Amino acid sequence: MRRFSSTIWRRTGLDRHISDTQTRQQPLKKRPATATVLFLFILSAAVFISASWINLSSFYVTNVTEKAIIISQENRRSAMRVEIPLNCSAGNMTQTCPVNYPTSFETEDRDPSLNSTCPDYFRWIHEDLRPFKSTGITRDMVERAMRTAHFRVVIVKGRVYVEKYKKSIQTRDVFTFRGILQLLRRYPGRLPDLEMMFDCDDRPVIRSRDYRGPNATAPPPLFRYCGDRWNLDIVFPDWSFWGWAEINIKPWNSILKELKEGNGRQKWMERGPYAYWKGNPLVAETRKDLLKCNVSGEQDWNARLFVQAQAIGKAASDFIQEELKMEYVYDYMFHLFNEYAKLLKLEAKVPEGAVEFCSETMACPANGIEKRLMMESLVKGSSITSPCTMPPPYDPRALGAFVKRKANSIKQVETWERRYWDSLDKQE
Ligand SMILES: *[C@@H]1O[C@H](CO)[C@@H](O)[C@H](O)[C@H]1NC(C)=O
Ligand SMILES: *[C@@H]1O[C@H](CO)[C@@H](O)[C@H](O)[C@H]1NC(C)=O
Ligand SMILES: *[C@@H]1O[C@H](CO)[C@@H](O)[C@H](O)[C@H]1NC(C)=O
Ligand SMILES: *[C@@H]1O[C@H](CO)[C@@H](O)[C@H](O)[C@H]1NC(C)=O
Ligand SMILES: *[C@@H]1O[C@H](CO)[C@@H](O)[C@H](O)[C@H]1NC(C)=O
Ligand SMILES: *[C@@H]1O[C@H](CO)[C@@H](O)[C@H](O)[C@H]1NC(C)=O
Prior knowledge:
This is Glycosyl transferase CAP10 domain-containing protein. The chain crosses the membrane at residues 33-54. Keywords: Membrane, Transmembrane, Transmembrane helix. InterPro entries: CAP10, O-Glucosyltr/Glycosyltrsf_90. The chain is 32% helix and 13% strand. It has helices at 14-23, 34-43, 123-129, 139-144, 172-186, 252-265, 285-291, 318-323, 326-343, 359-363, 368-376, 396-427, and strands at residues 2-3, 49-50, 70-76, 79-83, 151-156, 159-164, 194-198, 222-224, 226-227, 234-235, 275-279, 303-307, 312-313, 355-357. By secondary structure, the chain is of the alpha/beta class. Among the domains are: 2-15 and 85-249 and 318-389, no CATH class; 34-73, no CATH class. Helix 7 links the parallel strand 11 and strand 12 (303-307). Bound molecules: 2-acetamido-2-deoxy-beta-D-glucopyranose (6 copies). One 2-acetamido-2-deoxy-beta-D-glucopyranose is lined by residues 213-215. Residues 67-68, 87, 89-90, 98-99 line the site of one 2-acetamido-2-deoxy-beta-D-glucopyranose (NAG).
């Protein structure tokens, strides 16, 4: 299972793995996951736990009387940053979006000594879109993806419209729209017109075996947060990067800052070896089992397990800090959209009944933690650098080797588990 998430200890990690090995219903070999790699990092990592939550006084609050667009004087090298403050002054903002968004921005030349190639995991964009390369994406294909979709997103001339079909789990949908809107603020005028169907549930559903063979129909393009080698769903960053209101998870850019602070205090290699897990134990038996591994008066297996506490692990490898920084999450979406739009054989049309979304209609009427998260993750102006450069597709052999390596790591862990269970059997 491959998931693009900031909350790396989620299902892709430990408990999915455990439930797969115990029930044996799922094929064991899984598509290698960035998330799994990250999880292993966390598992083997020392984690400095701190319960500090948000410093309430530090929230960015826009002065709503400011001009909607200010061309900043802060002239960084050659480009000017277009600032896009939130304009909540226009009456009932749950209804209308301001008309005067910027439609272009300047970027400065990149420092030629810096590597501007996107991280390697961007190559999955090529893999995810490959099934549509030969046929392109027709309207019929998009409509067929509606079967399980929670909503359709339509982008026309830099504005975002959403047609909702059903309610998603928690606020996943809201924070996903949120992410798309921030992308538009970051790269105004640079997003193509498109229509996409989005499914907010975890499990991929577009089975590749249903679209094979000489008479097969073309698969429907469906975006979701997870993908694997058995399915053709297109992976999109999950909502957690913009905050997760229900369990008090802050936007990723805030968490990254804290991680940096944590890492500054103590070097990775100097930390104690603790495994850290936080989550909801009620959704699976295996998770309840997992909690038995917590430190207690009798045992300490260096595991620290929490039930949706507000604590957050303040540690991460350089990989997480560098290759998963927020700019890259936006660049991933940017390239995914642009490459997807190139395949579209339809003219994006705003459906009747679709609602226009903008940062104002979402953030101005919100309140409580949702508002806080939205203000915190607001992209306040356009980027002054262009998106990173897409790497070429994986070389099939390199990809094969990568898949094999990850499958072997999973097998290795399974062997350890089996040994553990065997040793228990012998004791009985
Ligand atoms: C907001 O901006 C206006 C105009 O620049 C200024 O007069 C006002 O004092 C500001 N308000 C606050 C709360 O900063
Ligand atoms: C804004 O519009 C919504 C929906 O029509 C309505 O429920 C709400 O009371 C309005 N708010 C204000 C401040 O007018
Ligand atoms: C805020 O948006 C409204 C509606 O588009 C517009 O009339 C108003 O001029 C904007 N305010 C500022 C300060 O630009
Ligand atoms: C630039 O970064 C990409 C992705 O991390 C890497 O594959 C490539 O080898 C790098 N190129 C140079 C010249 O360092
Ligand atoms: C494909 O369609 C052709 C013509 O309708 C038919 O003769 C053939 O049996 C079909 N093949 C498969 C695998 O369904
Ligand atoms: C696990 O142990 C830690 C440290 O004693 C404790 O703070 C935490 O609440 C425990 N977790 C659970 C689920 O009991």
